[in-house]
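Researcher: Good morning. I'm working through a list of sequences from a screen, and I'd like to move beyond sequence-only analysis. For each chain I'm collecting a predicted structure so we can compare shapes side by side. This is the next one on the list. No need for commentary yet; just the structure.
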Amino acid sequence: MFKRSDESLINKALDGDERAWQQLVSRYQTMLYHYGLRLMGNPDDARDLLQDVLMVLCRNLAQFRGDSSFKTWLFGIANYRAMDMLRKRKPTQDIDDSPDLFNDDEPTAEARLYGQQTQKIVQQQLKHLPADQRLVVELRFYQQFTFDEIADQLAISSNTVKSRFYAALDKLRTQLEVAHVEQSANF
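Model: Good morning. Structure tokens for this chain:
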């Protein structure tokens, strides 16, 4: 069986085809949830973000013009809603540890443990980045959008996206070096 295009599903969903709507949602809901989990930092906020994005999608699907891919448009909505949620969050509110999101296929238990520890450290350090930088890193690494696509979603220039991205990488590198030194000192 072939995979229907987003445009085909959108047109059918707009014509009232509930099955097409469900296929469209199921195609992106896991991706959106994981995006929310990494960006927001805890499952409850990720579910709230997902629900919010799907409600906006339901109300505004007819406004999709096709100027960009549907995925880009949808993540633009998610970006806007996530930034809104993060702005409303109390400054002192701490972000919970996020669960392990990736399965490692390393052959040895030692390699799996090291990979999980490294992943956990990276996720911890991502939480310390400013929200606008964390968003760009999320979209570039995890969602694999181009700089131009991210710029379209955030309504900023590609140069601003690149600036935020590379500033975030510099901060992450510094934070990870410090974390590595601290971890080595504990052994």
